[in-house]
Amino acid sequence: MLEVGKYNTLKIVKDLDFGVYLDGGNGKEILLPARYVPKNVKPGDEVEVFIYHDNEGRLIATTAHPLAIVGEFKFMEVKSVNNTGAFLEWGLMKDLLVPFKEQKMPMREGKWYLVYVHLDHITGRIVASARIDKYLDNVIPEYTPNQEVDLLVADETEIGYKVIINNLHWGLLYYNEVFRRLEKGEEIKGYIKEVREDEKIDVSLTPQGYQKIEGLAGTILESLKSQGGFIAVHDKSDPEVIQSLFQCSKKSFKQAVGALYKQHLITLEDGGISLVKNQEQLPE
Full-prediction pTM beyond 0.85? Predict the structure, then answer.
């Protein structure tokens, strides 16, 4: 079934000078303009495309990737404002509309706002809403401790960062569990720490096993996780480099790295240190 506002894999049925037509099901043929047609494809081949409406209201396909698809939250910049609403830059030829009724406050050109991308229930077209609360916490949170989740940093509070979990729920990431400053709009991996009785959700940047590693060793582990599992620093790095990254002496750094290595949490590489991928080796 064709999904507007999402990626679809469709078969090419016609090849013309101005593009190819794709089988949209139920007798529908959807144009993929020539500029977006992959090289060396032919009728019968399948292509992955994003489906949306052009300025005339017709369904059209593209191989370009928008900043967000239907069902996702994203910070986007206002490109223009007119008597219809605000239009966001979202990576496609056609800008994304935020109707006035979906703005919490009047949007201004050049400013960035957190929005939710969805289909308008009347027109069926893709639009965005800045009234994000109504699109969150609408389903019971069924997470398990240490479950890996996608986080979007949305705002800050007195005690931590408000994050959106898996485009479904609000969560809280406490300041004392974050080793560096996070920016609004930043997308990171995280872990469920606890779903409280009131269904509020606490998250962490590291699994609970890591959190038992305290002090400098814990900071090194958090750094590894945020950098994709590798950092280009080791026990032979210049003391100044170690000091700038971890605010510690080279001796303290070597001791912490040694402790992590003995617990099989890291491996030592020629150019730095790597996080062990086997999560089962986390300490009890």
Answer: no
* Residues 6+ away with beta carbon under 8 Å from 267: 261, 273, 274, 276
Domain 215-281 fold is Arc Repressor Mutant, subunit A (1.10.10)
Q: How far is it, in rounded angstroms, from Cα 264 to Cα 194?
A: 26
Who's near 159: CB < 8 A, 6+ residues apart? 172, 174, 175
Locate CATH 1.10.10.10 in the chain.
215-281
SS (H, E, C) 1-46: CCCCCCEEEEEEEEEECCEEEEEEECCEEEEEEHHHCCCCCCCCCE
CATH fold for domain 73-134: OB fold (Dihydrolipoamide Acetyltransferase, E2P) (2.40.50)
At 223-255, the pLDDT tens digits run 888 888 899 998 888 988 888 888 888 888 888
Q: pLDDT tens digits for 56-88?
A: 899 999 999 999 999 999 999 999 999 999 999
Residue with tokens 């050109």: 109
CATH topology of domain 7-62: OB fold (Dihydrolipoamide Acetyltransferase, E2P) (2.40.50)
**């398990």: which residue's tokens?**
144
Using DSSP, how many helices (H) and how many strands (E) does the chain show? 4, 18
Token representation of residue 186: 């930043």
- Cα–Cα distance measured from residue 33 to residue 125, given in angstroms and rounded to the nearest whole number: 20
Topology (CATH level 3) of domain 148-205: OB fold (Dihydrolipoamide Acetyltransferase, E2P) (2.40.50)
